[in-house]
Specification:
Strand 8 and strand 9 form a beta hairpin. The protein is rod-shaped. It has 271 residues and is α+β, with helices and mostly antiparallel strands. It is built from six helices and 16 strands. Strands 7-11-8-9 form a four-stranded mixed beta sheet.
């Protein structure tokens, strides 16, 4: 027993043995440290971060926030929106709230500083009707407006006869050459209004008031002022004068009135 004890003491006090034990302890310690480091790296590498909501933010502010949160902001497209400040984030991909790894690129669409140019429609194919033309303008992001209305017997009501962009009059031939204006602009149109119908002036002379009233109604006209100063009974009197002489050359507008003068006896020149 004593001999075994002496041999054991000799073994543990041996320098080579001690070095081996120390080497084993250091090796185990290094293995544990390396394992913990790898686990820690793997855990952090797999961590997901929630995407920030950049929409409606100014682009510079959005980039600054993205840098702080470990994301990269990439502008993929810019569009012009009337009334919207430039360099505002409109859309983003991935969407806000989505969880991603750090250093992920976030692609955004922003508002443009300078509006796009659009080609105005031509007047071909019935586009000269204001209502139809205005719908096509609105589809392009252009505002249509009636500048004025003019009478024109040649064209139907609501027909465009002039096109204006600010103080510039745009001719129909310019429209054929793909006239461009900034999106969001206003185009003003001069259009035709309902034409007044004109007819021949009927002959009322030698007629009674009842006859004249019947004739005028059939023409779409009205009796105006009636001079009765020379008659006692207007019901049996005759018209001797009318404010607008009968004519097939000189026209009168539908709805107009004709003044007449009455006499007791039928004028001598009546047929």
């Amino acid at each position: 027993m004593a001999s075994f004890f002496h041999r054991l003491v000799a073994l543990v006090t041996n320098k080579i043995f001690i070095k081996n034990i120390i080497g084993m302890v250091v090796t185990i310690f290094l293995l544990i440290y390396a394992t913990l480091w790898v686990l820690d790296f793997y855990t952090n590498h797999g961590t997901s971060y929630e995407i920030t909501d950049f929409e409606d933010m100014n682009l510079d502010e959005a980039k600054e926030m993205a840098d702080k949160n470990g994301f990269k902001l990439v502008v993929t497209d810019s569009i012009y929106l009337e009334g919207k400040d430039p360099n505002i984030v409109l859309q983003q991909n991935p969407k806000p709230g989505v969880k991603v790894k750090k250093d992920r690129a976030v692609y955004v669409t922003t508002t443009k500083v300078v509006p796009d140019l659009v080609i105005l429609p031509t007047m071909a194919g019935g586009n000269d009707n204001y209502d139809l033309y205005n719908k096509k303008l609105n589809a392009l992001g252009i505002h249509g407006k009636i500048k004025s209305k003019v009478s024109n017997f040649k064209y139907a009501e609501n027909t465009i006869v002039e096109v204006w962009f600010g103080k510039e009059r745009i001719t129909f031939s310019e429209l054929k050459k793909e006239k461009q204006i900034p999106k969001g602009s206003t185009i003003e149109c001069v259009i035709t209004k309902k034409s007044v119908d004109y007819i021949d002036v009927p002959n009322l002379k030698c007629r009674t008031l009842n006859e004249a009233d019947f004739i005028l109604n059939s023409y779409g006209l009205k009796l105006g002022k009636i001079d009765k100063s020379n008659v006692d009974n207007e019901n049996i009197a005759f018209i001797s004068w009318q404010s607008q002489p009968a004519s097939s050359v000189d026209k009168i507008a539908v709805g107009a009135s004709i003044n007449v003068t009455l006499v007791s006896e039928k004028p001598k020149d009546c047929n």
